[in-house]
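Margin note from the TA: students keep mixing up input and output lines. Inputs are the sequences; the output is the structure of the whole complex. Example:
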Amino acid sequence: MADKKFHALVCCRAGMGSSMMLKIKIDQVIKENDLPIETEHGNLDSLIGFNGDFVITMPDLTDELNADDRVPSAVGITNIVDKAEMKEKLTAWLAEHNA
Amino acid sequence: MLSDLLTEDLVQLNVVASNWEDAIRKSAQPLVDIKKVTEGYVDDIIKGVNELGPYIVITEHVALPHARPESGALEPAVGITVLKDSVEFGSKDNDPVKFLFPLAAKDSEGHLSALQSLVELLSDPDFFAQLEKAQSPKDVVDLVHAKEGRL
């Protein structure tokens, strides 16, 4: 069984406003759907020494982060209150990384 | 709670803005006026959007103007600005913006409950329906109080 938990960093540029709200919603989606993901929260500086599995952020940062060597992969959430979008994108990421 | 950070002098209705930058500056002006943030904080919000795109447009028609705490957040605060006419921020999915919630926080953890309330409000279509009907800043503060009372 999938005991492994994937580790995600939820971040934005400032690391206190939108990313914290995004983390609140993401955690609700993870809990409701029992997804094997655990999250931490930070700003772009948190990427220094980051050794988790992926980054969850807002769409405008996604391309930049996907190009960043320190980031294994980045998932961009367009609408901070859209749980269906979050579920779809997290599930797709898990499928891709065969969880 | 969000209602601890939101006062009537931080609420503005029917604001006329000519573009996204004007909308951000006008939404944040009350926070500057009552010394919740410095002018530099507002400049950093604009700089962030110029550098990284409209990443503060976080859901349909809603922008959350905020910057790094160290750029000039003095005290925690949340404002609400409703524009008379929506403006384009260049957000592919969430334009045009009608509602702005300028935010100042010194760290995330200390205001977790306020951010939690805010994200629940942003998830609530009835909140926006009532916000559009609000006639005064007091109506808006009362609305937030009422919504939080039920959370």
